[in-house]
Amino acid sequence: EAGVTQFPSHSVIEKGQTVTLRCDPISGHDNLYWYRRVMGKEIKFLLHFVKESKQDESGMPNNRFLAERTGGTYSTLKVQPAELEDSGVYFCASSPPLAGVINEQFFGPGTRLTVL
Amino acid sequence: DAKTTQPPSMDCAEGRAANLPCNHSTISGNEYVYWYRQIHSQGPQYIIHGLKNNETNEMASLIITEDRKSSTLILPHATLRDTAVYYCIVRPWSTGGGNKLTFGTGTQLKVEL
Prior knowledge:
The complex is a heterodimer. By secondary structure, chain A is mainly beta.
């Protein structure tokens, strides 16, 4: 079974440019999460999709970040315009439908974003 | 979510048991203890979780104290590939409480020959 995949693995852009990160969750996983680790900091939650709906977006830092999950399959995270402080590693995770039980989250390898 | 406290780093000899402690003195009755780890340049990986009973799986054992204020993750025979940052996370079981993971600073475990 394929795991969570993320694309690209690395992205280097200049300040003010736009970048779109993609996450493909494990097939059948309704829950999709985005996290990020910026330099020297802890891994922080960004948002949580249940299928195509945003369940919790309390961790989104500002309106330069836009996450979508059209059709409830893959998700994209767009940063526009990118700022220096957005540099870090962006992780995507997915988990099966809840059914009343908290499930483990399966993480992708991350996208390393560098904003120059 | 309840806060956890872990030592910043630990060393372990290969083949020996690695015992990683975690304090979660403010844990609520509906919160589980989860352990994840992050091997360098990879995404976090689930290890084990428990509520109040000790748990064991193919990766590790989890010992939770009776008052649930602390726990210990045990890797019975650590190998070099177990070198990673280990995160202890407490998290409610109720879906109403949200399913996000709140990562702290974790413990950097270094397994040496």
